[in-house]
UniProtKB/TrEMBL annotation, chain A:
<keyword id="KW-0997">Cell inner membrane</keyword>
<keyword id="KW-1133">Transmembrane helix</keyword>
<feature type="domain" description="ABC transmembrane type-1">
    <location>
        <begin position="17"/>
        <end position="214"/>
    </location>
</feature>
<feature type="transmembrane region" description="Helical">
    <location>
        <begin position="53"/>
        <end position="76"/>
    </location>
</feature>
<dbReference type="GO" id="GO:0043190">
    <property type="term" value="C:ATP-binding cassette (ABC) transporter complex"/>
</dbReference>
<dbReference type="GO" id="GO:0022857">
    <property type="term" value="F:transmembrane transporter activity"/>
</dbReference>
<dbReference type="InterPro" id="IPR000515">
    <property type="entry name" value="MetI-like"/>
</dbReference>
<keyword id="KW-1003">Cell membrane</keyword>
<dbReference type="InterPro" id="IPR035906">
    <property type="entry name" value="MetI-like_sf"/>
</dbReference>
From TrEMBL, chain B:
<keyword id="KW-1003">Cell membrane</keyword>
<dbReference type="InterPro" id="IPR035906">
    <property type="entry name" value="MetI-like_sf"/>
</dbReference>
<dbReference type="InterPro" id="IPR010065">
    <property type="entry name" value="AA_ABC_transptr_permease_3TM"/>
</dbReference>
<feature type="transmembrane region" description="Helical">
    <location>
        <begin position="12"/>
        <end position="39"/>
    </location>
</feature>
<dbReference type="GO" id="GO:0043190">
    <property type="term" value="C:ATP-binding cassette (ABC) transporter complex"/>
</dbReference>
<keyword id="KW-0472">Membrane</keyword>
<keyword id="KW-0813">Transport</keyword>
<feature type="transmembrane region" description="Helical">
    <location>
        <begin position="191"/>
        <end position="213"/>
    </location>
</feature>
<protein>
    <submittedName>
        <fullName>Amino acid ABC transporter membrane protein 1 (PAAT family)</fullName>
    </submittedName>
</protein>
Amino acid sequence: MNLHLIVEVLPLLLEGMLLTAQLTAASVAIGLLIAVPLALLRTSPSSVLSYAVLLYTFVFRGTPLLVQLFLIYYGAGQLEWIRSSAAWSILREPYWCALITFSLNNGAYTTEILRGGIRAVPSGEIEAAKALGMSYALRIRRIVLPAGFRLALPAYANEVVLMLKASSLASTITLMELTGTARKIVAQTFSPYEVFIAAALIYLGFTFLIVCLFGRLERHMTKHQQRAGLKNNSRSRIRAAAKISASQKVAP
Amino acid sequence: MTELQGFGDQIALGAFTTLRTACTSLALGIGVGLCGALAKRSRFQLIRWLADCYTTIVRGVPELLIILILYFGGTVALTTVFGRYVEVDAFAAGVFALTIVFGAYATEVFRAAIQGVPPGQIDAAQALGLSKFCLWHLVILPQMWRYALPGLGNLWLTLLKDTALISVVGLEDLMRKTSIAAGSTHDPLTFYSIAAGLYLLFTSVSLVGLTWLERRADRGVRFAQ
């Protein structure tokens, strides 16, 4: 163990970490934007729409992220109509390819998680909203989405951590994020322990940060339940979590 | 396009390597997971603490980084030990890495599953004077299997997809064979689509198998109609 080396490479690694953070945050944000409408379609009574969304989530959750990444990065350039269109200036860049792949992948997983949350919303709440004369859009906005998101939050926090870890794959298409930077330094110095372990510690810190933030968000969002008594709250949360995890196992 | 431009055999061979890697890691990982779950329930605080550290660290670090640490780190370690350049076998390093990752997640699954076994059953077994081995072999393991199966199934699907990462350190699996074929034929779209299709096939077959296993595991349980 050469501590001196760790101190020396730390600024470089932190620079890589910035790209990792940026990729993760952007993919999670775009993934959520994709997932919210798709999760609503997935839970809609129309089976055609539901199956169409299921096809998307099945393909993206059933194949390795690495294959998806290579398919978009190497495969897209092969199509003449993409090469000649304006999209080529975006799909030529590894950064955009990684961002598009990660967003689509994250969107697929988040869709299924949100679907689990939406299905776990007590039917009485929705019936009450109907009885009050709320329109469909208002019901979705005021009742279904907030309650569903709250129920899906623990699973969603896990998904964000998985996205952080998955962003390390961007190093395979020449992006110099945290793992990519670490690999480059190892190739130059050939001291894998110091550099890779330093990178692992940075990832670990990041994971703790995400877990911590989501813990706070969850406490913030379940404030109204805490007043009703802790015991009752935790039991209903466990029930909802069991429901969501049961709905997850149906698809890959 | 006949015979995938001569790469059909290679890709089939790669798919076989992928399945072999995943199955080996699954078998070893289940063992690690069971030991981890036992360690988390240990009477000794040190062992519980070590098990907690193991699962927390492994679940917070990217799989790719773990594979890289074991592959390059292992090469350096072996080179120091033997005094000459020794390269770690990609299959061994990959299986080792995936076993560690799978074991960490499986530890949590098994721990929850053991908690799912009603404590009355364990009390009853002790009251009947069953030995510790018989208690696990006859009472706890057969029942926790049912609770562990859904979680374990999800982990298997993740494991299957994670094998693609070992291609980064040179294991000749489906992903790597596809990359080689795509590179030499300049037709990445076709070959990566074939790889995606094959992975999807493995996942679908696994899902069917898992559903069957779960139904089989539930056969002794009465559900409310």
